[in-house]
Structures are given as C-alpha cells and as structure tokens.
Design goal:
569 residues; alpha+beta; OB fold (Dihydrolipoamide Acetyltransferase, E2P); Dihydrolipoamide Transferase; 4 domains; eight-stranded antiparallel β-sheet; seven-stranded mixed β-sheet; binds oxidized coenzyme A
C-alpha cells in the first residue's frame, strides 16, 4: 500500500476554475478514468478523471474551491507496489502519449499558422461585402451529442453568441459563433451526433465582422496554436465576463482542450435558468426532467443532482398548490406588499382534500352534463311524510330520494358503476352499489359511503345519511366509513346555486352535483305551470364513459326522480 497525492491536471492554461462536484468520498475504491471532480466555468464543464486505480484516503478540495494545475486534489492508496509501478508506467506512457499528441497538435497548429496568416491576408485583401461562411464543430474530443439549439435559421447573432450546446460523456460546452451575422442552413437538431468538422450550418457574415483580423472560423480557431503570453492575456481579458468575472477554462484532456478553447467567449444565456453540468444534464435526460423548471441551489443558481431529486419529490408529493406534474408553477407572491395579510395553517384534511382534488382534476378528463329535473311530485310526497318522519325521528330531505334514484340508475347503466385499472387496460365492474355523499364539515370536506344503497329503503337512507353527516361533523368517521364508494353525490341544494361542475372522486368515474331547486314556469303544452325544478350536473371520466352514455344515465335519473313510483319497479 502506498499513498499518493493526485493533483489537478493541466486545465489548458486556465487558472482558478471552480469545483462544482466532488464525485467520490473517502473510502471509495476507484478505477482509472473514474470521474473524481467536475469543474465548471461559464462556458464549459468537465469531469476530471482518475489517473490511476486506488482507494480515496483523503479529499483535499471542496465544492466551491477554485483550482489550478498542480493543486492537490486527493490522496489515494495504491493497491500494491507491482500494480503501482505498472500503473505509474501506464500513466507515464499515457503522459508521454498525451505529450506526443499535444506536440503533434502544436506542430500541426504551427504548420497551420503560416497558412492562416495567408488566409488572413487573403481575407483582408477581399472586397468588403457580406458572404456566407461555413460553421463547423470544433475539436470536442470525439463524438458529442447536440443537446441544445441556441439559435434558429434566420437569427442574427453576434460573434461569441452561443449557437449550440454539445455534450460528451465527460463534458458539456457551448459553441460560440465565430462571426457576427445571420444564421443560414442551420439543419442540425437536438440529439444529433457530431464530431470535429461536422457542419453546424452557415452564417451570412457582415463585411466588418468577416474582415476582423482577430476573428477565426470554427476551424481556424481549432487550428490556432496555444496563444502566446501576450495574446493569452488579451484572450483572457476578452473572456472575462461582466456578470460573472470568472475565467473561461480549457480542458486538460488534450482531446477536449481545443474544444474548450473554441467555447471561450462572452457569456451568453442559452436557456435562462439552465445552468448544469454534464452529469446533471445526463440524469435529467434519463428521467425526462425539464431542466428549465428545476431551481438550482448550487453556486450562481447551478442545478445539482440534489435539485433534480427535490424536483422529482415535488412531483410525487404535489399537494395541488400549483407545483408538479410538469405543469407551469404559479409564482409565489408576497401579498403583504398590497396590504395587511394573515397566515393560517391549513388543516390536514384540507390539504388532503386539495391533493385528492388536484390529482383527480389533472388525471381524469372531466366532462360535465347538466339537466333540470321536475321534482314537484317528489317534493309533494316528501312533505306528506313530514309527520311520519318526525315520529321516526328522522329528517327527510331530497337526498335519500336522490341516493335511491342514483342507485337504480347505476344498476340500469352498469358502465357507471366501474373503475378503470391504473394501466387503462381493464374496466372493473362492481356488483355492489355503494354511494358516497360529500359532507361539508368545519375541518374540511369528507365523503362517507353508504353501503348497498340499492337495497335500502328511503327511511333507512335518510337515517343513515343523517348519522354519517353527524359523525363527519364530529370527526368520528373511521377510514372504513369513507372507503369502497362507486359513485358520489355532492348536494349543495341546502346552500344554493344553480349549477356547478363537481370533481370526480377518483377512482370512481362519475359524480352527481345537486343544486338548489327553484320553482320555474314549465310549458305543459297548453299553459305555463309552476314546477319545482332541481338542477343536476353529472361529471364523468370521459376515458370510461362517453357522452351518449352520460346523456342516457341523466335521462334515467330524471325519469326516476320525476316519477318516484318507478323506484319501486
Ligand atoms: N334544493 C332545495 N332545498 C334543499 C335541497 C335542494 N336540492 N336539498 C336540501 N334542501 C333543503 C333540505 O330539505 C333542508 O331543508 P329543511 O331544513 O327545510 O328541511 C335544507 O335544505 C338543509 O338540508 P341539509 O343540507 O341539512 O340536508 P341534506 O340531506 O340536503 O344534505 C349533507 C346533507 C350532509 C349532504 C349536507 O349537509 C352537506 O354537507 N352538503 C354540502 C356538500 C358539499 O359541500 N358539497 C360540495 C362538495 S365539492 O366542494
């Protein structure tokens, strides 16, 4: 076992680059190339891979630290001397190889330099008119995926404006426009795989921009050698951004270095609010999380993995307060700026009701159908029962009649007495008719369920309704009292209103809303007669029930209530 200090590698000349993630913990066993850290500047982020295998014994950096080449990063225990040697040899080979690549690149670059000078001269000799230039993908160290389009055909862009965001396994970066001009032939789309030299599109270059001596095409930039100290300084200056003050940085990975160079430039917000590293972007894609909707808690609003977890948690726990389900969130407002306000904690029941209502509203395609039922005879009959009701100690309202009629309609139209399986594959028909009634209590809304309504008498239903309503108001209902409903009646008749659209009590598929009866003039073929008309509204889940079925159900209910003798049939 030998301890070794792992240092920050060459960051392509950049200093003071921020650590945005420490991807390992003390005690972790790592393989060579495992990601140790994620570094990020304004324009690019990259993972720093382990140069060799071992076990992390000490972490010498923290998230938020700024680091430069040579800074101590980790201490690792190397497995064995033999392995260590070979690993070191490998690393040495690798270094040599990389060094060779860099040298080769530099040589190629310096060869290019003469060519470039000539090109530059040729460009400055050209007449100053607009022309179309190709925009190619710079060296991004192999294949990368196009993950964001920042511009579209016909957009006017400034030199340095971001055109696209690319992402490889190890890094994501914005590709800036090499010129000021108008985007043409921009044919790539999100998801396309690109590599060095892939054609991004064309740009109609303005004369001044084209002949700018310090401007290079993507390819030109790509082949530009590492800047000389003076040039480097001026490049660094231009890379300093007004709002962040952070240095751009270039990757230490030779394959990435030039790509990073190509991504330097002024800060451009491609998607305001989306500021995330490659690992987070990858995770967001895997879970189809819209990053635009995730609030970043990292430095400068950067989105970290925990933010994605919190976002998903919000979705699953959404209580109807406006968040979740991928729906636009209603912004928080400080109401106290408009006048005095008072805060009151909502009851558990109110919050649960809100959650259930929201869940039903967003999941079920609701349709509501309205009707008016002539219950003149029903009301005459009900009133005739008053004395007997008193003797029995029950109050008889229209509700027990509505329950009985609804049970008969459910029997006649069994497609209403169902639930859908969650996967939408099956319909579950119920052979029992249990109906819930919405009861308004000081603590909130509850829905106790009356069992086997079709088998009970009006007297029984009246007594049971009163008993359950009282239990609800006294908060004495047991969970079992509120389970097993097939259908719900929500009666606001005692309160008022001419109609409303009740929300289905899922997984039921329909609910009946009852409003206040009103005496209305109804044409009987010869004259207008004063009739007691009861407004009904039937909301149904259009996945389970179609409009014609709903029409028939409501017509049946109408018939039963208009002539309650039919309930005996
Ligand atoms: N039209 C006119 N009058 C009506 C009526 C109607 N549709 N329905 C009931 N009434 C009358 C009753 O006959 C009673 O009058 P009397 O006192 O003169 O006899 C009065 O209104 C009050 O009735 P009630 O509300 O006490 O009794 P009910 O059987 O109609 O309802 C219950 C019981 C528990 C359902 C009811 O008290 C309740 O809580 N309703 C609210 C339901 C609710 O909040 N729904 C909304 C859910 S979505 O937010």
């Amino acid at each position: 076992m030998a301890n070794e200090t792992i240092k920050i590698p060459d960051l392509g000349g950049a200093d003071g680059v921020e650590i945005i993630e420490v991807s390992v913990a003390v005690g972790d066993t790592i393989a060579a190339e495992d990601s140790l850290l994620v570094l990020e500047s304004d324009k690019a982020s990259m993972e720093v891979p382990a140069p060799k295998a071992g076990k992390i014994s000490k972490i010498l950096v923290n998230v938020g630290d700024t680091v430069s080449e040579g800074d101590d990063m980790f201490e690792i225990e190397i497995e064995s001397a033999g392995e260590d040697e070979s690993a070191t040899d490998d690393a040495g080979d690798e270094e040599e190889k990389e060094q060779g690549e860099v040298e080769e690149d530099e040589k190629a670059s310096s060869d290019d330099q003469g060519e470039k000078a000539e090109q530059s001269k040729a460009a400055s000799d050209k007449p100053k008119s607009s022309s179309v230039r190709k925009i190619e993908v710079p060296d991004i160290g192999g294949e990368a995926e196009l993950i964001e389009l920042c511009v579209a055909e016909g957009d006017e862009v400034e030199e340095g404006d971001s055109l696209v965001v690319l992402e490889s396994d190890k890094a994501s970066m914005e590709v800036p426009s090499p010129y000021t001009g108008v985007i043409r032939n921009f044919k790539l789309k999100v998801g396309d795989s690109v590599a060095k030299g892939s054609l991004l599109g064309e740009i109609e270059v303005q004369a001044e921009s084209e002949t700018k001596p310090d401007t290079a095409s993507a390819e030109d930039r790509d082949s530009t050698p590492a800047p000389e100290p003076e040039a480097k300084e001026s490049a660094a200056k231009s890379e300093k951004t007004a709002d962040s003050g952070d240095d751009s940085f270039q990757s230490s990975n030779p394959a990435m270095a030039k790509g990073s160079e190509a991504v330097s430039g002024p800060t451009v917000e491609t998607h305001p609010g989306v500021y995330a590293g490659p690992a987070v972007r990858k995770m967001a894609r895997e879970f189809s999380i819209p990053l635009e909707e995730v609030k970043g808690s990292g430095p400068r609003g950067r989105i970290v993995k925990e933010d994605l977890q919190a976002y998903v948690k919000t979705l699953t726990e959404s209580d109807g307060a406006g968040s979740g389900s991928g729906l636009p969130v209603i912004p928080d407002v400080d109401f106290s700026q408009f006048g005095s306000v008072r805060l009151e904690a909502r009851s558990k029941l109110a919050k649960l009701t809100a959650k259930n209502m929201h869940r039903s509203w967003v999941n079920l395609p609701h349709v509501t159908q309205f009707d008016e039922t002539d219950i003149t005879e029903l009301e005459d009959f009900r009133k005739s029962l008053k004395a007997e009701a008193e003797q029995r100690g029950v109050k008889i309202t229209p509700l027990p009649f509505l329950l009985k009629a609804a049970a008969a309609a459910l029997r006649a139209h069994p497609q209403f007495n169902v639930s859908l399986s969650n996967d939408g594959e099956d319909i579950i028909y119920k052979d029992y008719v249990h109906i819930g009634i919405a009861v308004d209590t000081p603590a909130g809304l509850v829905v106790p369920v009356l069992r086997d309504v079709d088998k009970k008498s009006i007297w029984d239903l009246a007594a049971e309704t009163a008993e359950l309503a009282q239990k609800a108001k006294d908060r004495k209902l047991r969970p079992a009292d509120m389970q097993g409903g097939c259908f719900t009646i929500s009666s606001l008749g005692g309160i008022g209103g001419t109609g409303f659209t009740p929300i289905i009590n899922a997984p039921e598929v329909a609910i009946l809303g009852v409003s206040k009866l009103a005496v209305k003039p109804v044409w009987d073929g010869e004259s207008f007669q004063p009739r007691k008309m009861l407004p009904l509204s039937l909301s149904y889940d259009h996945r389970a029930i179609n409009g014609a079925d709903a029409g028939q159900f409501l017509t049946e209910l109408n018939r039963l209530l208009a002539d309650i003798r039919r309930l005996a049939l």
